[in-house]
Amino acid sequence: MTASSPSDRVWQRAAVLGSLWAAVEIVVGAFLHNLRVPFAGTLLSAFGVVIVTAGHRALPSRGIVWRSALIAALMKSMSPSAVILGPMVGILAEGLLMEAALAAIGANTAGYVVSGALAVSWSLAQKLLSTVIAFGPDVVRLYTETYRFAARSLGVSQFGPFDLVATLFVVECAIGVVAAGVGLRLGRRAGTVSDAVALELKPPPPEPRARLAEAAHTTWSLPRLAVAAAALVAGMALVGALPLAFGAMCVGLYSAWVFWTYPRAMARLRRPMFWIEVAGVMLLAGLVLGGLQHGLAGLVDGLRAGSQMVLRAMLVLFGFSAVSVELRNPRILDWLERHRLRGLSDALGVAFGTLPAFIAAMSSGRSFLRAPLASLTGMLQLANNLSLAHGTGHDGLVILTGRTGSGKTTLAGQVVHGLRTRGFRVGGMLARGWLAPTGGAGPLRRSGFDLVDLQSGATMPLCRVGEPGGPGYERCGPFEFTRDGLAFGRDALERGAAGADVVVVDEVGPLELSGGGWARSLDGLAIEFNGPLLVIARLAVVEAVKARWGTPTTPVCDVAVADADAITALIEERADRLRKAGRQRQQQPAASL
Q1: What are 436's strand-pairing partners?
Q2: Burial class (CB within 10 angstroms; exposed 0-12, middle 13-18, buried 19+) of 329
């Protein structure tokens, strides 16, 4: 076993919480933005407050909030989106504001309420700041003149242009207060871990890192990052002072360089809404900043001011696109690790390992929004189960993985035979597929699993597809699990820990990661069993299994390339190492005397 330091435990908890936050940003955020739901950023901020408040209430640790925000922001930075700097800054700022409020006021109701109000209101503050940064100070004058014109037209004069902004801030603070209250309630509800299946989990989607393959093949350059950032800053300072034609030429050259170096930056130009916004700003500026008051000459001046605002906005857009790509540079992550963020890299590994389970639990943004509180409760319970995994990993854990139907159980059976040939007592269980006809005399297909106790040889039905369910069943994905089968498997694992040299667990998946199935039995084995554990796990959850029950160096054997003899030899080597470590621990007290 290997013990982890308090700092490592905080990073581990933050990794799980940050992964849940990132999952909501990925699934729900994409759903809201695709539907162009108004105030989508505010909704996402509120969900973030609920998650962090509930997670901190269930597992209070100093520094866990800002670490969770950093993990979520870095996971957002690795998304294939062209512009990620804004969302990254938003997530990290929300976490820092919440951490500051909790540190100043304390982890009590007042502290959570203030932290929630600050975090959600940052969504509006960031929108305003980013608008001023993108379009320049003239956008403030454009807003105030537009507001005054609208107020005169509607006969409303008792409210000034910034009263509306103040009202929006009050509304967002109120939303943050409500989100914090919901988080406190869910934190208490999700803190109770049940033997029942916490969620009806769908089969996990393909490994999320596959979606990041394009970003992973990017050639990063710190000098390019410096050039892109310096040109962006200089352009923002000069574009308004230069003649319009010269400014347009400079922005055009910079944009061409960005297009050539970062082709994904062109994606924004293909969106009709982008050009509608550009035309809208120019026309509004032409009318409000001159045309309505000074006729044609004023219209020309207003259009010129609008053109400069648009040029600045395009410069900022493409500059942020370039900087966003370069921020993915692994050397930046290494630098962060060397400067008081030790443990960040391992935490990111844990976060990516747990992400498939969270995304699988959410199913889709639409289903999440139909019952957000129930979905968040289930996912917070899953997060607590992962975070409460004991602070030790089993040095003898070996994972056998592969795709569905690739022969994992068959290969595991061959390994069991090889181990017994070498004199090992093998306990635990294998889950053999149960075949049923597809209809009438049709071909057989796997429609469930039967458990085989490796010590007694007894078998028991575990799950079936299409069973009616009821009090004696627990549902997970398409399967109805029998409670008798689950009890049979747990008993096989507990007896295996007492009378075996090697224990086999077939298999570990989303059910266990949600706290059901063999989760508690594995927790006990990770603490008490001194021999090797052979765990069969799906490809999509391998990293999550390592994070909860193993160590960063846990070996993973893919059924596509591994053979039974190699895995048997690996387990034998692990058994020898564990025996030597056990003898050393027994000799240490005597030596100290």
Answers
A1: 445
A2: middle
Residues of the chain with CATH 3.40.50.300: 392-436+445-592
Tell me, what's the pLDDT at 434?
80
> pLDDT tens digit string along 391-450?
456 788 999 998 877 889 999 999 999 999 999 999 999 998 887 766 555 566 777 889
> 472 by DSSP, 3-state: which?
coil
Strands 392-393 and 2-3: antiparallel
β partners of residue 506? 536
Q: Which residues contact 174 (CB under 8 A, 6 or more apart)?
A: 117
CA distances (Å), origin 134, targets 140, 310, 476 = 12, 8, 48
Buried b (16+ CB within 10 A) or exposed e, 474-489: bebbebbbbeebbebb
Q: What share of the chain is helix, strand, coil (3-state, %, to 5)?
A: 65, 10, 20
Q: 3-state class of 551 per DSSP? A: coil
Q: 516 and 195 in contact (C-beta within 8 Å)?
A: yes
pLDDT tens column, 277-312: 666 666 666 566 554 555 555 556 666 666 777 777
Q: What is the pLDDT of residues 47-100, one digit of tens each?
A: 999 999 988 887 777 888 998 998 888 887 655 454 566 788 889 999 999 999
**CA gap 71, 153 in Å, rounded:** 49
Name beta bridge partners: 435. 446
Q: Assess contact for 22 and 355: CB atoms under 8 A.
A: yes
Residue with tokens 């820990």: 497
Q: What is the pTM of this model?
A: 0.60
The closest alpha carbon to 42, from 146, 143, 170, belongs to: 170
pLDDT tier at 101, thresholds 50, 70, 90: very high
Helix axes 40-58, 6-34, angle to 10 degrees: 160
Burial of 270 (0-12, 13-18, 19+ CB in 10 A): exposed
Residue whose tokens read 């997670």? 55
Among 355, 392, 388, 414, which residue's Cα sits nearest to residue 542?
Answer: 355
CA distances from 113 to 63, 98, 119, 191 (A): 18, 10, 10, 20
CATH architecture of 392-436+445-592: 3-Layer(aba) Sandwich (3.40)
Number of other residues whose CB lies within 10 A of the CB of residue 167: 11
How far apart are alpha carbons 207 and 352 in whole angstroms? Answer: 9
User: Cα-flanking dihedrals φ and ψ of residue 502, to 5°?
Assistant: -135, 140
Q: Classify residue 577 as left (phi > 0), alpha (psi -120 to 50) or beta.
A: alpha
Greatest CA separation found in the chain?
A: 99
**Given this model, what pLDDT does residue 593 score?**
34
Cα separation, 239 vs 419, in Å, equals 73
Distance CA 228, CA 571 (A): 51
